[in-house]
Amino acid sequence: MLTLKQYKEIIDLHYHARKREILGEEEKSAICDEMLGILLEERNEIAAFSYPYKVKRDLIWGFLNQRPPNPVTPRFLELQDRLFSSETEERGVVDVGEFKEEDGLCLWKGDITRLNADAVVNAANNSLLGCFIPHHKCIDNVIHSRAGVQVRLDCSKIMGAQGESEPSGCAKITLAYNLPSKYIIHTVGPMVRLHVTEENERVLRNSYMSSLNLAKEMKLKSIAFCCISTGIFGFPAEDAAAIAVGAVKNWLLETRYPIRVVFDVFLDRDLEIYKDVLKNT
Q1: I need a labelling partner for 153 at 20 to 30 A (CA). Which of 125, 147, 195, 221 fits?
Q2: Using one digit for the tens of pLDDT, what is the confidence trace for 127-169?
Q3: Which secondary-structure segment (H or E) carries 107?
Q4: Which residues pair with 175 in a beta bridge?
């Protein structure tokens, strides 16, 4: 398995702040036309753009989900980055520095792709290449789709050099490109079959610790975790939250590393679960 030192030589991990501007719909529509032309040419399909802007944007989303990690032209990246960074500004950037903190821990309900944490954590699969199902609502799809094609390309380079699937409980880091965060940490949590096993619990703890260890190695000062392995991976939300909070608290006690940790949830039910776990752990 590749170490950070090894794949730092393969992908660019030097963060550069991006200038973002909010584009008008007419300009975004023109960008979509050009992006669609490039994507359809790749697919050997004929371009036809007599669609409303939203339809064109959804087509791009679906095509990029399905697109293998093949190189793209500088022009495509220029178009994509202008469009995606504009959308980031439109969604609104949320400053994690303003969250109420207790012992280095914060809880927030909302879209993790709006957070300006140094790193956001993606619940990835063992291929690390993101979700290939068009318009799928999993966090892996959402993060890749809003960050840009560069993330899949970076992950492909890492996995090609590694020569094997990413082990569950481990993690890799890439730039976040068009997200407000600087980096994305991709970790592979356990997939629960019939019931939660001790091995599932061990792997989930490792996912949190591996992510934190990467953040420490990169000297990051804030990290936002999604609810790893819940949802389609089948880990019960209550059990996953207890493991997450316990693992993070133990890591902070052992390392004494100063980092702000955000537990990001998307559902009201998960918010109440984390409130209860944080109060009683």
Answers
A1: 221
A2: 999 999 999 999 999 999 999 999 999 999 999 999 999 999 9
A3: strand 105-109
A4: 183
- Identify whether the C-beta of residue 73 lies closer than 8 Å to the C-beta of residue 38: yes
Sheet holding 171-175, edge to edge: 105-109, 260-265, 222-225, 119-124, 183-188, 171-175
Q: In 43-148, which ranges are continuous DSSP H helix? A: 53-66, 74-91, 139-147
Whether 7 and 174 have beta carbons less than 8 Å apart is answered as no
Q: What pLDDT score does 48 carry?
A: 63
pLDDT at 119: 98
> Alpha-carbon distance 188 to 206, whole Å?
9
CA nearest to 112, candidates 146, 82, 86: 146
What pLDDT does residue 45 have? 87
Give, for 252, the enclosing helix (H) or strand (E): helix 237-255
Residues contacting 5, CB < 8 A, separation 6+: none
Residues of the chain with pLDDT below 50 are none
pLDDT at 19: 85
Distance of CA 14 to the CA centre of its chain: 18
Beta strands in 111-151 (DSSP E): 119-124
Q: What distance in Å separates the CA atoms of residue 13 and residue 53, rounded to the nearest whole number?
A: 34
